[in-house]
Amino acid sequence: MSIAALRTESSTAAKAILSSGVDTLTSLSAALSTAAPYADISSAESAFVAAIGSDVEKSNDVVDGLYTIVRDALVMAIGNIRVLEKFIGLRVPQMEDGNNFGVTVQMMMAKLLKEKREQLEKSLSETSKYYSSRADAIDKFNHISKTSKVETTTESTGKSTGGKDGDSNTTSSNTSVETKTATGSVNKIDANRVKSLAALDAQMYCDLKFALEGMVDDYLIILDNFEKNMDKLEHPRGKAYGGYGSGGSSMVY
Predict the structure, then answer these.
(1) Which residue has the higher pLDDT, 152 or 179?
(2) Of 69, 95, 143, 235, which residue is 20 to 30 A from 205 by alpha carbon distance?
(3) How far lies 81's CA from each of 99, 107, 111, 241, in Å?
């Protein structure tokens, strides 16, 4: 496949993303309004304390649902932005003196895309720590019995003399597994730890909600900028320019 064919393929993929952009935003906004029922963090905390009750090890269904929606949306947006970045990179004309305003527009858009993508990648990375933090918080409850297994392997060697085959060395090993269950030190659930767990869930709820709201805003800004500047982004030196062939440079300057 030639560079020209890849450039055409990139253009088709980018335009498909842009043409479906409003539908994508509408779908994400609708999903957020359904999956994020609490308007403020105090309402979320109160609801989560009540939901935890006496079973601190059960999942938070609200946060779990929002977690899936938001992280899927972040991955989708990051992938789409990469497609748009490639589209611009492959439309940069060969280096020439003058008539570079369109190239400046391309560079500014490329900078915007990179910044927004990196913000989304950071959100994706930070939200991945939720379940580890939640497991640590649950582990601090003293009323929960904890089970551990200890595996012990013993090995012994010996030597036998005489016999039909003469002297010989022997080795034997034995592995045993001991299971230990430590019962909770108290029967009463620590109310403060319940509140701490609910606060952690509420914080993640807000982080996820804000991440998706920010992503929707950024995605809209990107769509708007492409709509306003598409001609310069696709044809920085005009539609009659032919400097995209094998002799052209793809360097950004």
Answers:
(1) 152
(2) 143
(3) 27, 15, 12, 26
φ/ψ of residue 11, rounded to 5: -65, -40
Angle between helix 3-19 and helix 21-35 axes, rounded to 10 deg: 50
8 A C-beta contact, residue 169 and residue 159? yes
What is the C-alpha to C-alpha distance for residues 168 and 159, in angstroms, rounded to an integer?
A: 6
Alpha-carbon dihedral angle through residues 18, 23, 27, 29, given to the nearest 10 degrees: 80
Q: How far apart are CA 31 and CA 73, in angstroms?
A: 10
pLDDT > 80? residue 226: yes
Give the pLDDT confidence of 33-72 residue by residue, as tens digits.
999 999 999 999 999 999 999 899 999 999 999 999 999 9
| Contact (Cβ atoms closer than 8 angstroms) between residue 102 and residue 232 | yes
Please tell me the pTM assigned to this model.
0.78
3-state helix, strand, coil in the chain (%, to 5): 60, 10, 25
- pLDDT tens for each residue of 66-103: 999 999 999 999 999 999 999 999 999 888 777 788 99
Tell me how far apart the alpha carbons of residues 245 and 247 are, in angstroms, rounded to a whole number. Answer: 5
Q: Would you mind telling me the total number of residues written for the chain in this entry?
A: 253
pLDDT at residue 14 tops 50: yes
Name the strand (E) or helix (H) holding 174.
strand 168-182
Helices (H), 61-142: 61-89, 101-127, 130-139
- Other residues' Cβ atoms within 10 Å of the Cβ of residue 170: 9
